[in-house]
Amino acid sequence: MPKPGQKTVTMSGAPLKTLEAKYEEEKKVRPNLSFAAFVTESALMELERRDMLKEAQLISLVAYTDDTAILKDARKGNKFFEVQIRNKKLKCLTDNDFDCVHVGFALALPQVRKALAND
Ligand SMILES: [Zn+2]
Q: How many Å lie between the centroid of ligand 1 and the Cα of residue 62?
């Protein structure tokens, strides 16, 4: 029985088999990972990915130079955001952030992937 603040979820059939197979793979790398932690983590990551995709639809690439992507963000009054690549790391200069949605967007650009692979 779940304790207060917990919830039990029942899974079955093909989805369960798929999750168990993926879990077995992941466990090879992280032996201490429980099935519950794996499922929770996967669900949260997927939700974050969806949020990211939703936000990313409103962002577009304006220009790309050797180490900088200039992005336009429609959510923020079409303001420009500058994402710089330095030492294989991306940083949004406008937000002064290594992990904002602009960094996420820039990471998916082929030009950036190429730059990260080359240095
Ligand atoms: Zn940003």
A: 14
* Cα diameter, the chain: 57
DSSP 8: -
Distance of CA 85 from the midpoint of ligand 1 (Å): 13
Is the model more confident about 22 or about 116? Answer: 22
HSE-CB for 44 with a 13 A CA cutoff? 6
What residue ranges in 9-67 does DSSP mark as E strands? Answer: 59-64
The Cα–Cα gap between 47 and 68 comes to: 29
Question: Which residues are placed with Cβ below 5 angstroms of ligand 1, an ion?
Answer: 81, 92, 95, 100, 102
- Reported residue count of the chain is 119
For 67, other C-beta atoms within 10 Å of its C-beta total 13
Query: What is the CA(40)–ligand 1 centre distance, in A?
Result: 28
Residue with tokens 């992937």: 113
- Minimal CA–CA distance to 88: which of 70, 102, 62, 106? 106
Q: Please give the mean pLDDT across all residues of the chain.
A: 92
